[in-house]
Amino acid sequence: MAERTVSNRALLKLLVSARLRSQVAFRGSFASDVVGQMVLGLTEFVELYAIVNNIPSFGGMTFAQTLLVFGLASVSFAVADLLMGETDSMAETIRTGKLEVLLIRPIPVLLQLVTSDFQLRRAGRAIFAVLALTVALVITDIEWNAATILLIIITPVAGAMIFCALFLGAGAMQFWLLDGRQFASAFTYGGRYVATMPGAALFLPMQVFFTFVIPATLVAYAPSLIILGLDGPAGIPAWTGWLGVPAALILSGLMLLFWRSAIKKYTGAGG
Questions:
Q1: What are the residue ranges of helices labelled H in the chain?
Q2: Membrane-spanning residues where (predicted)?
Q3: Is 110 helix (H, G, I), strand (E, B) or coil?
Q4: Which residue among 23, 63, 66, 132 has its CA within the 20 to 30 Å range from the CA of 103?
């Protein structure tokens, strides 16, 4: 059994290595793909800048403070998209019968899925996100202490876990909604949009929903309240900034159960 496990890991490592080498083989094309992903991140920043630049504050935050929220959320989403973005096309994987090929291999389906078409070009989005976060940390008035440093370190990790869980849940959902990719994407990309903006800009019911149901505000906004020493709105008190890790663990566990239920439910592509 141990030898088989080692063999499976070696095979998976070989497949991933081959995939990555094939992507970087054509350096010009790979570089343009990475730049394209960076431009995508820049476009999202310009959209935010266009809003904040025309008003004194956005959800009670200045431009620099809003940029901190944007940077933290963007890093989290970019990492999750790099790791789990392939689950977004689960409906196509099912329709084409690719899932059946994955099921007969002695490697966990999820592990195969996220490595079979690993898109290294998505790192471009992560690069821009890190740049945006770095600028935000430099220009924002932050009182540096142990709690602040700890939050800045753990927030992107917890945020990435939350988005990975949302990607996983969106993928599992498509077992029942074979044409529901757009509906499922509302939870992932919609969550990203909410995470990049100050939560105080939302109506109170939406604040509660995106904090305690789909924890998008816990990705960046709530931790930013503690980092910046700000009081949160009624639906997102500042203490929720410490809930990112617990929320990520709980959501990850629930979505893994949902995923396993979806795999067990699958009976074949037919035909």
A1: 2-24, 27-52, 63-84, 90-95, 98-103, 109-116, 123-139, 146-173, 181-195, 204-212, 221-228, 244-265
A2: 55-80, 126-144, 150-178, 199-221, 241-259
A3: helix
A4: 23
Task: Evaluate whether residue 56 is within a structural domain.
Answer: yes
Residue 15: inside a domain: no
Domain residues for 40? 26-265
Contact partners, residue 243, CB within 8 Å, separation at least 6? 215, 218, 222
Q: For residue 37, tell me if it sits in a domain.
A: yes
Phi, psi torsion values for 58, nearest 5 degrees: -120, 110
**220-249 confidence digits (pLDDT tens):** 999 999 999 999 999 999 999 999 999 999
Residue 54 DSSP symbol = T
* 25 burial type by CB count under 10 A (0-12 exposed, 13-18 middle, 19+ buried): exposed
What would the mean pLDDT of 197-225 be, rounded to a whole number? 96
Q: How far apart are CA 48 and CA 44, in angstroms?
A: 6
Task: Spell out the residues 6+ positions from residue 94 whose beta carbon is closer than 8 angstroms to its own.
Answer: 174, 175, 178, 266, 269
The pLDDT tens digits of the residues spanning 57-80 come to: 899 999 999 999 999 999 999 999
Is 238:222 a contact under the CB 8 Å cutoff?
yes
**Mean pLDDT for the chain overall:** 86
Two tokens at 203? 């109506």
